[in-house]
Amino acid sequence: MKNLLIVLVCLLLVIAISIFFGSQWAEDKIEKKIASIPFLSYDSLEIDIMDRSLKLHNLIGNKNGYEGSVELLEINGLHIWPILRNEEFIVDDVIVDGVDFSYRIKKSKVIDNQLDSDTIDIPFFNIRSIDVRSAGFIVLDESGSKLFEAKLNATLDNVSSSDLHSPGNIPSKLRELKGDSARFYTKNGLYTIDLAEAIYRDSALVIKDASFQSDLQKEEIGRYIGHEVDWLHVKVDSIVIEIKNPAVFLKKPQIQRVEIFRPNVDVFRDKRLPSPKNHKPPLLRHILGNSEYSFAFDTILIHNGKVVYEEFVKEEKGPGEASFHRINANITNMKSYSMGLSQRPRLVASCFIYDSAELFIDASFPINDQSTQTLVKGKMMPVDLTIFNRMIRYVSVVEVKSGYSKMLEFDFTYTDQLASGEMKFAYNDLAIAFLEKQESEPDGVLSAVKSFFVNSFVIDSNNDFQSNKFRVGKIDFERIGEKSIFNYWWGAIISGFKSSTGVNASGEKIDTN
Questions:
Q1: Highest averaged pLDDT of the listed ranges 20-34, 169-183, 320-334, 474-488
Q2: Per residue in 86-114, pLDDT tens?
Q3: Residue 431: strand, helix, or coil
Q4: CA atoms 6, 9, 15, 21: torsion sign
Q5: Distance CA 486, CA 476 (A)
Q6: If residue 379 lies in a helix (H) or strand (E), which one and from where to where?
Q7: What's CA 28's distance to the chain center, in Å?
Q8: Which residues partner with 452 through β-bridges?
């Protein structure tokens, strides 16, 4: 019996010594493996083989534009022998606390729908869960200017490096990603985009209380820049973005569905300032066709939006205002040229002008194809035409004294230079008056325009759709290159309005603002 006890004690001693020296050997081997990663450094490392845990303090990494530091990286449930034998990191739980991460973005060209960019060689790993706490993220442009910053918290389940080659498994494993107080910066620094909260859960990213705004007031921004420019203020209740495969999205930015709820957009332009020199804003087709970045939206839905556009043309008179309420829109196949074009992008939308006149729009356009025209169709429901005085009496020399629109339909196509088509405008009791000259109104362009109108702007008060004399208006408008797409559309519609009402102004050029 005594001999047996001695044998057991010796055996336990041998086991204890083996565990001690084996643990020390394992710890040294793990530490060497971590230290062998060239782009990582840290202050201290704690390993407890018996407890299967590891703690790294003040971890710092830098590679391919990525820079990051972590106050504490805690790993629990280390599977030691796979690490020692096969260099495979199999772990139960990971806690990441105090993250400070930044990325300097590089412009990537897309070839055959694959991003041509740097990659990071990552060893095999399999982690049951990752809990990221209080992570600060910053994205910089190539010059180092800040583009984005946010605080994030995230929980991921069953994450494996093999998923980099099998991205279809990722969505179920990213259980939740939550960001608070995120902010994006525009390139010129005049605007910021703020997000109160963003949560990725169940294959969808939900953004709450988003805004796009400037610290400058609406009448300050044009004076600051030195010429007329649009001032924007946008607020959105929530945005839902469906991203089924986050790993695929990183390689090929394609979003299946976006829903925008209650966007509220205010736009202001001060036309008392000079026009920008040598400026020709590109049409949307060219923006998508010439984009340096690759992206695709299969469907974008807008719910119950509102847009208010204000324009100042004359001193001490204005601004004129156009408002669009209850906007609902469906935009499909919105892609950059590099993503491949199976169908033309299309916009189908409805709204209420001044919350009174219901308007329907259906437009489709090519991407970067000079030979193909953009198609625009629209219809406005019956309305009292005097509601439009909120804009036209402040930006022109006329106002509508009376008139009722029974039907307004337009159908036109346009290229980079010319819009052409037809308008059916049925109305009755239309009367237009010329505004009296204000004491502060200078002589010059406006006086010349008013003189033209007085001499040649003669309209027919009725255009009955059931009459044999019903006039179908002709849309014929040449684009003013330095003005926006909205001016192009507005000019095309005004040309149809003039033709429908009997105005004979052939050869005259009038700024439609």
A1: 320-334
A2: 667 788 888 989 888 888 876 544 434 44
A3: strand
A4: negative
A5: 16
A6: strand 374-380
A7: 49
A8: none
pTM of the model: 0.71
Rounded-to-integer distance, Cα 27 and Cα 22, Å: 8
Residues in the chain: 513
* Closest C-alpha among 486, 319, 453, 490 to residue 393: 319
Two tokens, residue 452: 């033209």
CB 140 within 8 A of CB 103: yes
Residues 6 or more apart whose Cβ sits within 8 Å of residue 335? 288, 295, 296, 297, 341, 345, 367
CB 109 within 8 A of CB 73: no
Name the H helices within 405-458: 445-456
d(CA 61, CA 42): 9
Highest mean pLDDT among 79-88, 110-119, 160-169: 79-88
Half-sphere exposure of 34 (CA within 13 A, CB side): 21
At 422 the three-state DSSP class reads strand
267/235 Cα distance (integer angstroms)? 12
| Contacts made by residues 340-344, CB under 8 angstroms, sequence distance 24+ | 340/113, 341/367
The span from the CA of 397 to the CA of 356, in Å, is 24
